[in-house]
Amino acid sequence: MDTNAAFPDVVLNWINGQHETTLQNERFTKFNPHDGQALCQVARSRAADIAQAVAAAKAAQPAWAKTPPVKRGLVLFDVVMALKARREEMARVVALETGKGFKNALGETDGAIECGLFMAGEGQRLFGRTMPSGVPNKYAMTIRQPLGVAGLIIAANTPIANLAWKIFPALICGNTVVLKAAEDTPLSAWLFGQITHATGLPAGILNIVHGYGEEAGAPLVAHHDVAVISFTGSTAVGKLIAVTAGERLAKVSLELGGKNPLVVCDDADLDNAVKWILLSAFSNAGQRCASGSRIIVFDAVYEALRARLVQATEKLRVGPGDDDDFGPVINLEQLDNMLAAIRGACARGAQLVTGGYRLDDDAHCAGYYLAPTILEAVATNAEISRTELFGPITCLYRARDFADALALANDSPYGLTASIHTRNIHRAVEFTHQVQAGVAVVNAGTFGSEPHMPFGGVKQSGNGTREPGTEALDIYSTLKDVYITVNPNLV
Ligand code: NAD
To answer: How far apart are the CA of 485 and the centre of ligand 1, in A?
Structure first.
């Protein structure tokens, strides 16, 4: 792993263009997932610190809102170019704090840059509509307006992309931001703050706070000066946020978990299917909302697919390098939760096909490494079939035919992404239309959405919003109808 990343020993909040200690001067330790060693100390914010950040964002918002959207786009373009110039530095920091390979971290950083470029351009397209009026001499149109302060809360799995997905659309719409970074990935957020500062983004427009969910995230959601909350994280926390935001009728966008099916039909290219199962289930250590955690295989090819998949899985390399297929999970608690889930599933009748244990050789024993794990003979109503694990674990299910596979795919509380492998165009199109998911893919993985496309889920995977794409503008702005009545006699 390239550990040559520069970062502070103590990561402080970034409020109003300055590093701020928390009012009680509390900190927590961020550990390196690769070796379990302390990486840095991080500000442990409480409600009063959040209030300080919200006040800074509120004070900066009117001037930012008055800045024409085209100009805001140019300012954001400078931020994107600065991120591009420092993309390797950012990727080193992401790799270090997540344990993933540098090459993957660089790919994510480039995704963040693409997202920023797209959103900067939206400054030139922040249009409403002109509509005919039913009344003579009356003109009707809509305009987009900012909401105020945006409270953004993100997960740690792909930190620089998660951050860009929210910050760029929130800012282009004329809001100012308080971002609550994930407690496991404070450094990428810190560096992003420094990069924006170096480009001259005025103080208070982007504020970054650190801390635990209940102590720092919850007060941000509850704060009456936060007009819109955008959250990426677990369904359980998303529900809590929806209740708090609902009580004060704040706008809220929830991008939540998934238990995503990948269907392999009897006419699929099995090598291609195996390739995408491996990537969907195990890349990024399975820490993707869009990971493929339910592999549904037609009976006719089950044994053949299973044999190829097991062979390929057992060849995967686990570690923090560019030659490795995936790295550690983000923290020890996650690792312990997954081991417990595997034990619980096996106690209830699931069969372990491969993996299921913590890697304990010299190269891995200090880190949070789980062997790539496949289970089978799992009931569709078993906990492991219905609960997202967020790790390198997937389950195999048998299906009789297309109808059975589709029914299995849809038999889930979640509905984020889905994929089908088939050479039959009729099956492919029918699946994309009938599967209950926000994203449907043919002959590839369950993940891989692009930054200019609207991503999000149905059922327990979200509340119906889509980020990013132009659809994100609907989250971060409000429409105002404007009617203008003129009197031709006064011309
Ligand atoms: P999590 O819900 O525990 O935490 C996510 C964020 O929410 C963190 O910053 C955390 O500090 C904060 N948080 C926790 N409790 C909070 C509370 N009570 N109030 C306010 N904020 C709170 O999730 P996690 O385990 O860190 O991340 C994994 C989850 O994120 C998975 O469910 C995954 O599917 C989901 N995810 C979804 C998407 C998507 O776009 N749909 C993308 C990435 C990750």
So the answer is: 48
Distance, in Å, from the CA atom of 177 to the CA atom of 179, rounded to the nearest integer, reads 6
How far apart are alpha carbons 173 and 148 in whole angstroms?
Answer: 10
C-alpha 427/C-alpha 403 separation (Å) is 10
The ligand 1 atom nearest the CA atom of 212: 11
Domains in the chain, CATH or no CATH each: 10-256+462-480 (3.40.605.10), 260-442 (3.40.309.10)
Report how far Cα 293 is from the mean position of its chain's Cα atoms: 17
Q: Which residue ranges in the chain fall short of pLDDT 50?
A: 1-2
Tell me: the pLDDT tens digits for 15-59?
A: 999 998 989 999 999 999 999 999 999 999 999 999 999 999 999
Q: Ligand 1: list residues with CB < 6 Å.
A: 153-157, 180, 182-183, 212-214, 217-218, 221, 232-234, 237, 240-241, 255-258, 289, 388, 390, 416
Q: Which residue minimizes the CA distance to atom 3 of ligand 1?
A: 234
Task: Look at the pTM and tell me if it is higher than 0.90.
Answer: yes
pLDDT digit string, tens, across residues 307-366: 999 999 999 999 999 999 999 999 999 999 999 999 999 999 999 999 999 999 999 999
Encoded amino acid at 70, one letter: V
